[in-house]
Design brief:
7 helices; alpha/beta; four-stranded mixed sheet
Amino acid sequence: MDVFLVPVSTERYEPYCEVPDEPDHGVAEPAPGFFRRLVHRFKEMIADAERERRQGAQVPRADSWMGRAQARTLRWVAEAIAEQKLLWHLRKQTAACLHYPDDVQEAEAVAVLRFHLARDLKKHRLWLAIDSILMVFFGIVLFPVPGPNVVGYYFAFRVVGHYLSYRGARQGLNEVAWINEASEPLTELRRVLALDPGVREPRVHAVAETLRLEHLVSFFERSAVST
């Protein structure tokens, strides 16, 4: 697994990764148990959102209000997934490579990565506890109300997302064996931060092609503080 330390300002970085989409063979049937069924449904939703992202404009525009709402929801979920993919995939890794700008010392790059992982671990552990309490609370309060418990399901999905992110951050901090490699293309991203968007975009595209990162351009434009 490759992780890229992307400069998003002169002194700030964001870890980034792209993992090839798994073959679309569907999601296996869940094992018994409420939480495992919840994780199963969560993975189904992720698979739907990823399919929507891959197909993009190839999908005909839905005619119904419900169809358009579902498409917008899936695109929103796909964006949220992109932000958490690094942590979700880290939880299954035992080795990974950190690529960092070559104008940064290796020890500094490692410290930046560990800072992000430690911050994410604390954040997701806190929200896992909060959303677990809210999931149980709304599950009890809204149980007598007819129809699906939308609020309860919302917090249930948040619980799953924070749980997977927490596990990934812990794995990256404590279990993954990291190899570190300096990268000149990542340094180029720092050089273009102050450029006008029209001038900057082609150079960011060139970096993305060099690193073979399909979605780096949108991530960089979304994360960089320069406009």
